[in-house]
Every structure is written in C-alpha cells, then in structure tokens.
Model the fold of this input.
Amino acid sequence: MSRLPQVSYLADGRRLHLNDGPIDLVIEAHGSDISVRAAYEAAATRLTGLLDALCEELPDLRAPAHERRPLRGPVARRMAAAVAPFAGEEFITPMAAVAGAVAEEVLGAMVAAAPLTRAYVNNGGDIALHLAPGQAFTVGLIDRPDRPSLIGRTRLTAQHASRGIATSGRHGRSFSLGIADAVTVLAKTAAMADAAATVIANAVDLPGHAGIVRVPACDIQPDSDLGARPVTRDVAPLAPDDIATALAAGTERARDALARGLIDGASLRLQGETAVVALTPTGP
Done:
C-alpha cells in the first residue's frame, strides 16, 4: 500500500502544501469553495503512490534518453517525451523533466476534478499553470534558486500558450553541467520547460576556464543519472567578457529551442548580468 503524502496548509490558509520525499508541492487554486476543496482533494489523491511508481522505473528514467527505453507510467512517459527533442544533440535523461512532469500530473488531476478559474502547482520552482479565459499569472524572475532575489517579472495571460515555468542552474536542487546562476524558461508544458531549462543552463558555460571547479557527479551522489560527468561546484568572479561569452552560448541554445517551438521564452542570469530571449520583463 502506498504511503500517504504529508498534507497541510500554508500560513495564508489558501495554499496547500503536499510533501512526499523529494516531491514538495505548493498548490493554489481559485474557484468556488466547493471546487477548490475538490481540487485539493484530487491533488492529494493523485500524489499518493506517484513517487512509488516513479521509483519502480528509476533505472530506465536514469538511462540516456536516446536509448528510448519503454516506460509504463504516465509521468514517466511525460518525462521521456519532454527530453526526447534534445536526446540526439546532447546527454540528457528523463530525470531532467521530473519536477515539471510531476507538477503537470497533479495539476491535471485538479482541473479534471473541478472547474477552476486559475491554479498552479509549484514543485520546487517548476510550475504547472492553469488559466481560464480572462485570467493572468505573474512570473517572477530570480537571481538564483537557492536564495531567490527578484530581478524582474513577466505576465502571462490566458491568451499566451505558456503553461509551464521552470528554473534551472548550478544553485538548484539538481546538478548542472553549466555555470548559470539561474535560467528561467516558459514553455507550453511544465515538463518541457523543465527539460529546456536544464539544457539551456548547461549551455551557459566556459569550458576549460581555470576559475570553474567541477567534480564528477557520482563523487557527490553515487547513483546520479549523470554518472562521472563533471558538474559545476564553484565559479570564481568572472571578467565581463567571460560573462558575456557564457551568456551568449546559453542564449544561442535558447534561441534554437525557441525556433523549434520547444520554448516560449527564457531569462538567463550569470553573476549579475541577464540575457533574455522572447521575454519582455518588467522591474522587480
């Protein structure tokens, strides 16, 4: 029998907090009281057993995406679909989309359970979003995930295609091959935003730079899906030209993803400097 997630409300009494191991969700729904209650019950029900199902397929989810191993669960398949467009170009596993895919799955259960005007599921900064006609959502752009400081905002309305927001970088919960402090991506789904943010953050880099400390991922986490690939652990203060070079590499990767219809926009941050692709941020 699957263990039940921890369920509580945040101090404002509106937002629901669900936790099951590494899955930590902050959820907010808008609608009638009955609809919100039904949506929150559906979220808790859908999260129950979800982590167990992913763990059953973990070896295949940690395998390189280009191997295209058969996956059974809906979240696992969503993860694989999100990383598939990048699989032929670089090393990536379905785990690059796990947070966004989980958020998307829980939001889907909520929307199916009750009519809602607006809702989101925030899984550690990776957000799945529902907007009914006439609704809007403001996205905060941050300096770095581990100690977020707002550097700008962008507003999504129901007319926008974006329903997924994700932030990646070397300060996040997962390892990064690049040096970005934060890369925030908007995409049509949370799983795709998660995968693309990982790829773009990896591209913000200065290969061979003496001021960058890298360590094999397996030395830090023996079962990491990245194996012995070197992940960034520290970055010395960089010269302005180096910052510009690294951001340009990431921007090129973001523009390619935009041209292919994989993302709707991105904000890239490195040591106080920002580059944006197809976004019109406002002040913090």
About this structure: The chain has one domain: 6-277. The CA atoms of residues 10 and 250 lie 36 Å apart. The chain has a mean pLDDT of 95.
